Amino acid sequence: MVSYIARRIGVSILVFIAASFIMYVLAANSGDPLQDLEGSNSPNKQALIETRIHTQHLDLPAPVRWLLWLGGVARCIVPVGGGCDLGTTFQNQAVTQLLPQATLATIQLVTLAFVLAVVLGVALGIITALRAFSGFDYSITLVSFFLFSLPSFLIAVLLKSFIALGYNNFLADPTLSPLALAVWGIVVGLVVQLVAGGNFRKRVITFLIAGAVTALILWYMSVTQWFIKPSLGPVVVIIFCAAIAYGVVALLAGTRNRKAWITGGVTAAIAIACYFGLQWLLNMSSFGTLIILAIVAIGVGLLVGFFVGGYDRGLMMRIGALTAFLTSGVVVLDRLMRSWPAYMDLTNDRPLATVGAGTPGLNGDVWITGLDTFTHFLLPTMSLLLISFAGYTRYSRSGMLEVLNQDYVRTARAKGLPERTVIVRHAFRNMLIPITTLVATDMGALLGGAVITEYIFSISGMGQLFIAGLFRTDVNPIMGYFIVVAITAITFNFLADLTYSALDPRVRVR
Prior knowledge:
The protein is built from 20 helices and no strands. By secondary structure, the chain is an all-alpha fold. It has a domain at 2-99 and 446-503. α16 packs across α18 (419-457) and α17 (407-414) crosses α18. The chain starts with a helix and ends in a 7-residue tail after the last helix.
């Protein structure tokens, strides 16, 4: 294993060097770096041109400048001879100072989109595979291919036009007409009956019930002005916590495991008690306090699983930890929603942002700043999510269908194992092997898609740094962007190779 890791690191370094040379030469020859100064009317134009040539080494060939840049990168790894140096921009700003802030903004944008795309795409892919060639399968396939064919800039523009502007205009008079209630009821009813499946009679009953319940809930939200003053409330929090405990237990252990029910129930009960007893602490919390509370919640879930576990302690601890994490998220979500009216006042009743990563000059507690970050990153995250979501859905569906036809799955069913055990413990693990490769390559693609998304939503991340450098033929910020993307792609591919051996015992690193 040690020799394998050493070889992979060596190969990765060679790949990085070769790719950086190609990128540097292409960027350096993409335009005239002196064009803005040559067209200037400044009286000291010649002095500015000479200064830029001297500071950026423009009098040297591109390969020589690349060697100088590579030497600065080497000093970032081995800090000798002046320390890390990635060059400066045409405005004489050090790239090492610009890159961390830009990287943080892009990571905030890409990480959530990446996680949601993987989780939702894989989950829907598995469901469509289990319901292959049904109406639900055909509907998800149609939506997936449609989203996959849309360019990222078009998705971003559509989200800004129809979601942000439409929702902000709706908040001026947040009431739903009978026609709107009927339309939403029909849409939700159609979706639910596709998911539920069954014969025609069952589909019709499901459609009517789901449509009526949806219309009734939306009517209640409209009458009570919930869209302006949202909250979950004690009853909904209790229902959500109980539903989370049930879902986690049913997924991980099945519905006949008594210890699993005890673990999930006790953990959910603790979360509900904390909802009523810790509101004073949530009101005065900071971001650090919330992190500590999340760690404590997971620790409590692990302890509950440990003491209840018995012979299957590991499974009980996983159930307790996951239930604690999700139920604590419900508690935090309720507190976040109750800060919505105050945030609307600070944004002039137009809370859903279309540009920037934050509201300039906004002051508030962790809940106000959290809502501000959420509203600014919601549409960009959705844009990147929809780009990657379709691919994961299709790959996971085809992978699950292939695995379900394998001999060991038929053997597991023939032995009388429950369908949940066959899917979760046998088919799911092997289905993840091709998904691992897709995850490794998609991370780099998401960072590339973030360039366009950040430009459309005016987020000062790595995408803006790259585009600004490209327009001016300013190579150093372009190469700063390249470093982050290259290291991320190399790292994820390396982790994918190691993950293969964990998912498939037949694969061993030698």
